């Protein structure tokens, strides 16, 4: 992508709405997120209950659909506790810092075509609050700001376990944001733009999930890790952290952390729909026989359906996969996702460069296949040399000097591969009772009575 491509983008349809229409759009975006969050909480409890052969919420409202609203009211009415050792200013600001950025990313997500497609109170406008030439960089920046709320929540609580939870969450989010950014870069190369509306327009013929399947898979994994959802919910794991960074929070402040998590779920799902699933465009079978499927208010329906399907994917993962260990989480992020994302990005950049040189697609396939085969051959040679070295090391001296924990004059722990010498243990009471009187394991006390030799 070159600078002249960004300069040539026509985003003049944004920024011309009257102030009251901009306010209406902003309120709609906020209401869309809130309603989707309320529905997602009930839907998650219903689906997980169905997967576990339970009933789920069925008391508040018809079919229990008002359960999340009742939970919100309950949290607001609970006692608001501020721990004594907390830094009160940061302690109160942390949930606000975590929640506000979660709402900001939706501003650049298109719900429909960028043209003046719909009429609101007599004004033709686009179904998008605003757009930027670097809209996706704005999304990444906003997502990064939300990390500060979690870290500050753990630090300001004045307790050890929330601090550990905040640090683990920060490390997790930063690790998975790197692979997420590399997956975004592949989309930028194919669309030639960072604008969300232009990215959706570039998928008119074929969705990027078909052209860039590896980027889609990488983003799906990273968005689960970015939102701290199972099986990557280390910062909130109940077993070892008792709730993580939000352990010392209650009432409305705890509700804001919970709200930020679910809003982030909706946001990353909307970003995934925009980048890989055609955005507001109708699915393939519908768009072929219905010309008006991508006009009027219909695009909003396709967009919402796609977002709900991805939210169901979040729920399905929570009810299916067990939680991984933290070392497995970090290994997946740094040793698997980031290298794969970088190699895939180089491959996509190479294909785009060859296509710009008007090289035939068949020749590009041969070049790429040759590069992949060379890489596999190189990895095979490296593995063979590594195995030979390992066999040579195994054929060396098998006996190692015995480990002496007091060799330096003070006790030291064993190194990897070493083991402590066996510790002499006293015989059990049962064994002592079986000793025959007068045998070799008995001794005569000073008063003449036989006692145990131990």
| Helical content band | 55-70%
Secondary structure tally, helices: 16
Strand order within the widest sheet? 1-2
Order of helices and strands: HHHHEEHHHHHHHHHHHHEE
In short:
With 454 residues, the protein is an all-alpha fold. The protein contains 16 helices and four strands. Helix 4 runs parallel beside helix 11, helix 5 (135-156) runs antiparallel to helix 6 and helix 11 (251-276) packs across helix 13.
Description:
Keywords: Cell membrane, Membrane, NAD, Oxidoreductase, Quinone, Translocase, Transmembrane, Transmembrane helix, Ubiquinone. The chain has a domain at 12-324. The chain is built from 16 helices and 4 strands. The protein has helices spanning 3-7, 19-51, 67-77, 88-104, 135-156, 160-191, 196-201, 208-211, 213-226, 238-241, 251-276, 284-289, 298-320, 326-356, 361-394, 429-433; strands spanning 118-120, 123-125, 442-444, 450-452. The longest helix is centred in the last third of the chain and has 34 residues, at 361-394. The chain is globular, with a radius of gyration of 30 Å.
Task: Give a quick set of tags describing it.
454 residues; two-stranded antiparallel sheet; two-stranded antiparallel ribbon; globular; single chain; mainly alpha
Please write out the topology.
Elements: H1 3-7, H2 19-51, H3 67-77, H4 88-104, E1 118-120, E2 123-125, H5 135-156, H6 160-191, H7 196-201, H8 208-211, H9 213-226, H10 238-241, H11 251-276, H12 284-289, H13 298-320, H14 326-356, H15 361-394, H16 429-433, E3 442-444, E4 450-452
Antiparallel strand pairs: 1-2, 3-4
Helix pairs in contact: 2-11, 2-13, 3-11, 4-5, 4-11, 5-6, 6-9, 6-14, 9-11, 9-14, 11-13
């Amino acid at each position: 992508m070159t600078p002249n491509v960004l300069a040539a983008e026509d985003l003049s349809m944004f920024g011309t709405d009257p102030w009251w229409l901009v306010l209406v759009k902003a309120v709609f975006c906020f209401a869309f997120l809130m309603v989707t969050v309320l529905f997602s909480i009930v839907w998650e409890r219903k689906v997980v209950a169905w997967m576990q052969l339970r009933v789920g919420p069925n008391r508040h409202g018809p079919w229990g659909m008002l359960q999340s609203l009742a939970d919100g009211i309950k949290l607001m009415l609970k006692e608001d506790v501020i721990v004594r050792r907390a830094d009160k200013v940061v302690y109160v600001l942390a949930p606000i810092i975590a929640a506000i950025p979660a709402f900001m990313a939706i501003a650049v997500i298109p719900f429909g075509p960028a043209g003046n497609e719909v009429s609101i109170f007599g004004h033709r406008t686009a179904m998008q609050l605003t757009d930027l030439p670097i809209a996706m960089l704005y999304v990444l920046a906003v997502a990064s700001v939300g990390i500060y709320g979690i870290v500050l929540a753990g630090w300001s609580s004045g307790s050890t376990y929330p601090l550990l939870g905040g640090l683990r969450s920060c490390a997790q989010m930063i690790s998975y944001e790197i692979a997420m950014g590399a997956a975004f870069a592949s989309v930028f190369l194919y669309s030639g733009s960072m604008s969300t509306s232009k990215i959706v327009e570039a998928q008119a013929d074929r969705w990027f999930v078909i052209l860039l399947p590896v980027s889609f898979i990488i983003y799906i994994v990273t968005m689960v890790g970015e939102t701290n959802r199972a099986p990557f919910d280390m910062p909130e794991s109940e077993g070892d952290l008792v709730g993580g960074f939000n352990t010392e929070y209650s009432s409305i402040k705890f509700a804001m952390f919970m709200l930020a998590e679910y809003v982030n779920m909706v946001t990353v799902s909307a970003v995934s729909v925009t980048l890989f699933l055609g955005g507001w465009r109708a699915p393939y079978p519908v768009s072929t026989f219905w010309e008006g499927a991508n006009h009027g208010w219909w695009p909003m329906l396709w967009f919402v359906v796609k977002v709900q399907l991805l939210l169901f994917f979040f729920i399905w993962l929570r009810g299916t996969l067990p939680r991984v260990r933290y070392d497995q989480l970090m290994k997946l992020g740094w040793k698997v996702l980031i290298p794969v994302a970088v190699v895939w990005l180089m491959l996509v950049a190479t294909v785009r460069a060859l296509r710009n040189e008007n090289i035939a697609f068949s020749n590009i396939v041969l070049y790429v296949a040759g590069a992949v085969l060379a890489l596999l051959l190189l990895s095979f040679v490296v593995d063979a040399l590594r195995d030979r070295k390992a066999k040579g090391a195994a054929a060396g001296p098998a006996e190692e000097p015995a480990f002496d924990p007091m060799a330096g004059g003070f006790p030291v722990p064993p190194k990897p591969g070493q083991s402590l010498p066996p510790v002499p243990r006293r015989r059990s009471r049962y064994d002592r009772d079986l000793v025959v009187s007068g045998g070799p394991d008995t001794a005569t006390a000073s008063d003449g009575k036989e006692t145990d030799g131990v």
